[in-house]
Amino acid sequence: MPQVMVVARNFMDMVAALPAAKLDMLYDSAFICEAVLRSFPPLAKKYVIQMLYVSAPMPAAAMQEWVLDEYASKHKVAIDRLLQLRVFVEVRDRRKEVSYKMNNKFQANMQKYLVSGGCLPREPLPFSVTGRLPTLVELENYALDQWECFLLQLINSSQVEKGTTFSSSMMKTFQRGLLSSRDGEAAKLSENGFQFLLMETNAQLWYIMREYISSAEERGVDPTDLISFLLELSFHTQGAAYSLSTLTEVQRVAIMDLMELGLVKLQQGRKDSWFIPTKLATNLSSSLSDSAASKEGIVVVETNFRLYAYSASKLHCEILRLFSRVEYQLPNLIVGAITKESLYGAFDNGITAEQIISFLQQNAHPRVIDKIPIVPENVTDQIRLWENDRNRVEMVLSHVYEDFPSKDMFEQCCDHARDNGYLLWEDAKKMRLIVNAEFHQEMREFLRRQR
Length: 451
Known about the structure:
451 residues; alpha+beta; Arc Repressor Mutant, subunit A; three-stranded antiparallel sheet; 23 helices; 15 strands; 13% strand; disordered N terminus
């Protein structure tokens, strides 16, 4: 069965993975400190506020007494998160008792921010310079159109190969996990690519940002600088215009890449150029659960496996085609059916039954969203059964051992393989056994020792 892709839930997962030295460099910015503080669970935020003006290490045993016994698990989660992001640093005294001290840079910046507030390195341009700017509704439609264009180009691999709109840095990001190609062949969606298309928009955004940051060093960019700018971008006002002249060269390149995905909109004036953050950009420092927009679903699934999607979007039609047979498309309605053949095609591409069911539930039409279950049980059960049908037989590379000189040696080999977990099959009458190919060398060594 294909492995489900692991997606970073927010930027803080990527920040926590940075080396300690680079993580401390990020805390030079008060806005990074605030973004980190926002990401913490409520109890962790409380600990930060309590420790903000405490310079001495606080014993771990004393902090444990701050919560009742029934909240011990939440206390552990909060402390672990604070340690992961180096907001708290573990200190041990001569008696090896554990204490926690707040990161000096984080503490100093948060104290300044609390007293005097903070200001972004750039201010919005006045109306006299920009004139009329897009409304929030227009900006949201622009972001949606850009994102759908990106997904459609992923589905149509020939368009991706031509690279008509994507920069080389974004192409490298896609090729890291979403596309695969062989010599002389056009790029095609990989298994992760097919799974990616069934994710929610925010989950897709986090995946792209994670890969974009991970590939930064290949482009000669420090990931710390990129994370710092992206988190800073989340504090900009949605719909306001900011001058491109205030950006560094690295930031300018990043803005051009983000524009392709609909995170910002670029505009040109008579004397100045500016970028306008969309909702996707201002949600960057939030978690998936915080930033998930309450969008209206479109899909209705009937007990006869018929599927109706109330949408005029070509993207929705292409995504449904991944696991169903689209029969016809009206101006505002897509009609299809979930069949065994269409699901087998999805399974071949690496999409799992649970991902298909999750997609149908998350995109359910408002008329069926309150039903229990949202997707008819006979449909979900059959989808799982058809997946299980394909997984009943598993191909495993193996080696056959036969012609043993004696019954005793055969039994010793069987016992050895069984005890070590690589015996797949045995036939005592004909003295044959089959062993997993990964352990062929170990089995040969054992046979040599028995001679």
